[in-house]
Amino acid sequence: MSKDTSGAIHERGYVYNFHFHLVWVTKYRHEAFTTPKLVAEMTDILTKIARLNEVTIEQMEVMPDHIHLLLSFKPKYAPTNIVKAFKGGSARLFFELHPEIKAQKFWGGHLWAPSYFMSTLGDMSKKTVENYIASQRKR
User: Fold this and answer.
1) What digits encode the pLDDT tens for the residues 1-50?
2) Catalytic residue positions, numbered
3) Helix crossing, 79-97 with 36-52: angle to 10°?
4) Can you tell me whether residue 4 is helix, strand or coil?
5) What is residue 71's predicted lDDT score, i.e. its pLDDT?
6) SS3 for 21-74, per residue?
7) Where does the record place the Transposase IS200-like domain (predicted)?
8) Which of 12, 55, 97, 125 has the most neighbouring CB atoms within 10 Å?
């Protein structure tokens, strides 16, 4: 392993440095977060879910019809479980606060579309890692 682990998170028995870009949209792309108050409430909900699931939100943007998160979490957690925690928990908590929005725009009972986008990020590009692995046998 490289000695340069700047930005890495050190845990007992392992070190990691990866980040996930997660994006998901509201059902039918209906605009739900249309006021500063609604944006702040969803921001607070997502922050609470992150804390409960040992997730670090490095950056967040709540748009009228979608969410962008830059996340980091321990390798022991599966990315799909993190997505489920965010989407499921946020829908439940938001609808508890705003049953009127659920009735007006999300009558089917779902705040979020079933799909999402997630990509991984790191300090090194894919090409850098490919070159590093390819050079190992030559050492």
Assistant:
1) 344 456 788 888 888 888 899 999 999 999 999 999 999 999 999 999 99
2) 132
3) 140
4) coil
5) 94
6) EEEEEEHHHCCCCCCHHHHHHHHHHHHHHHHHCCEEEEEEEECCCEEEEEEEEC
7) 15-136
8) 55
Domain count, the chain: 1
Question: Cβ distance 91 to 111 under 8 Å?
Answer: yes
> Looking at the domain assignment, is residue 108 inside a domain?
yes
Residue 117 belongs to some domain of the structure: yes
Whether 1 is in a domain gets the answer no
Sign, CA dihedral 28-117-16-13, equals positive
Q: How many other CB atoms are found less than 10 A from the CB of residue 90? A: 20
Residue 125 covered by a domain: yes
| pTM over 0.90, yes/no | no
Structural domain boundaries enclosing 42: 16-138
Q: Are 90 and 45 in contact (CB under 8 A)?
A: yes
> Partners of 26 in the beta sheet?
112
Q: Which residue has the tokens 């957690």?
A: 77
In this structure, what CATH number is given to the domain that contains residue 129? 3.30.70.1290
